[in-house]
Design a protein that fits this description.
binds N-oxalylglycine; binds nickel (II) ion; about 25% helix; eight-stranded mixed β-sheet; about 350 residues; alpha+beta; single chain
Amino acid sequence: MASPCDWPEPVVRVQSVSESGSSTIPDRYIKPPSDRPSPNLSPPDINIPLIDLAGLTDGDLAVREATMKEISAACREWGFFQVVNHGLRAELVDRAREIWREFFHESMEVKQRYANSPKTYEGYGSRLGLQKGAILDWSDYYFLHYLPSSLKDHNKWPHQPSSLREVVEEYSKEIVRLGNVLLKVFSKNLGLRHDYLQNAFGGEDIGACLRVNFYPKCPQPDLTLGLSSHSDPGGITFLLPDENVCGLQVCRGQQWITVRPVPHGIIVNIGDQIQVISNAIYKSVEHRVVVNPNKERVSLAYFYNPKSDLLIQPAPELITPETPSLYPSMTFDEYRLFIRTRGPQGKSQVESLKSQK
Ligand code: OGA
Ligand code: NI
């Protein structure tokens, strides 16, 4: 299938709608009742697991093993966890988030220079998916590539604020380092060779891309979502949330759990490709974002992905008569095109692969 070239209808920036000061939101953003955020669903005392990554390099073997176990349980039971002592300096994570906030507060004229198209999605955007007349999410975003270097194009990164590129470079380098560490941990925890996942992802030739989400204030947050329920298509996602504004909700059983971020923590979640390679021992869990009447929210979602033209399939070591292979082989390129055309639609994407087997 050829890449789609343009949006099906004129693009409206959610930030402009928000700043118009209307007390109601346009119909385009009103979700059907079953998709709206339900009040008080999440018990306030439940949160995703919090893991101190300093434990991975502790001098005491028992501490290292306990940390590996915590990560294993979080991957199997939640698909989501929050990490601290991850090696990214507190000043760097704050700077990365705040510089993007500044970008979204640049004039519309500046931001429009980077307006994106569905061909590559790079740049400033306001929708995912191409279905004409679709109900849209209450967010704008900025999408860029860091790896492979052949896709990195500084001309497609904002030039303003002037230090943005430097900060994004440093932040990106650190996220890739963290991704390499976690792939090793996941491999060992799955009983695979320590370099299994890194090799399955293409060794050094992984993909890494950043989506910065901007959720403007919303006068009717009960009627819409900042980001519809979806699972992340890639390998691992590293989410830097807005420390002061909750919004991310993770699906657990029949409930939506609101994530409460810890200072300078990074939220890690398993993407669809690791669900496939682990043959569903690790789950890529659905999540969504709710918005807020009084506060905007900025988050940085870093997607650490397999090289896009490698075949991804369940690890043969994990296939047994009791646990037969659940997924067909598919490249990440093929998988992503499938999703980009349809927009975020819950878990249907990876689950629908099963029926193709
Ligand atoms: C995403 C995502 C959550 C958030 O960008 O894929 O799930 O809190 N973001 O912004
Ligand atoms: Ni996501």
